[in-house]
Design brief:
Distance between the termini: 49 Å
Strand order of the largest sheet: 3-2-4-1-5
Shape: elongated
CATH class of the largest domain: Alpha Beta
Radius of gyration: 21 Å
Number of strands: 10
Low-confidence stretches: 1-11
Structural class: alpha/beta
CATH architecture of the largest domain: 3-Layer(aba) Sandwich
CATH topology of the largest domain: Cobalt-precorrin-4 Transmethylase, domain 1
Number of helices: 9
Strand content: 15-25%
């Protein structure tokens, strides 16, 4: 009971809130995927931790055109952020100023470097507020027809052909044994090569979903067996996509 009281006391003493603000998955109308409440939060904030300043400013201008860009205080957190640069972000948590974290695309802190700052915020007992928005990972799984009870996300697979083959075979075996849907992604300009690799490596009855340009006007989501992919006409080149695998 004492621990619970201390937690409440600390939250009252620290007014800072960290808002996890979803961004768009591409060039689409924001009203299609973002609640109005998100826009109210963005309007209320002037401090943001972002993966890319240019795209973050573009996103904020798109959803809140009346917001004065020169008033924004932007901090960068991405895969190249050095440990010493994290100190400035940690100091930001101690200033008592609420701020938002914005990913390059989709949900912050999911397959995203923003998770580092969220971890520290939780350790400092600062309130973290996740906002509703699009996740390419979950939307792909929803539309795939695969196991939504048990699934795993693996990010990018190895580029080396030998290592990639080993990894894909391992994921297929794991899916067959456990029923877990395996989710991964590829650099957009190698999407077609990924499908080609899948048809050469996996068993003919293994199902693959390619979810391309999710939430955009030209959204293309298909789930086929490897045998079917071998004769399917497709072109996913330079179009962001998520891959979902389910082995029988």
């Amino acid at each position: 009971m004492a621990s619970s009281k201390n937690t409440i006391f600390n939250n009252k003493m620290n007014p800072t809130k960290v808002y996890l603000i979803p961004s768009l998955l591409g060039e689409s109308e924001h009203s299609r995927v973002l609640p109005l409440y998100n826009l109210d939060i963005i309007r209320s904030l002037n401090t943001f931790v972002v993966e890319n300043e240019k795209s973050a400013r573009k996103f904020i201008k798109q959803v809140c055109p009346d917001k004065v860009q020169s008033d924004l205080d932007i901090y960068i957190l991405n895969k190249t952020t050095e440990p010493e640069e994290m100190f400035d972000l940690i100091k930001l948590l101690d200033k008592g100023i609420s701020f938002g974290i914005i990913s390059e695309a989709g949900l912050p802190a999911i397959a995203d470097p923003g998770a580092q700052l969220v971890k520290i915020a939780q350790e400092k007992r600062i309130q973290v507020v996740p906002l509703v928005g699009p996740s390419s990972i979950l939307l792909a799984l929803m539309a795939s027809g695969m196991n939504g009870q048990k699934f795993a996300f693996h990010g990018y697979l190895p580029i080396d052909k030998t290592e990639r083959k080993k990894r894909l075979s391992y994921l297929e075996n794991e899916s067959a044994k456990t029923g877990v849907a395996q989710i991964f992604m590829e650099t957009p300009y190698r999407n077609n090569q990924m499908v080609d690799d899948l048809t050469k490596i996996l068993h003919s009855d293994t199902r693959i979903c390619v979810a391309c340009h999710i939430t955009l006007d030209d959204e293309d989501i298909r789930t086929l067996t490897i045998q079917e992919w071998k004769t399917e006409k497709y072109d996913f080149h330079k179009r962001p996509a998520i891959f979902v695998m389910q082995a029988e």
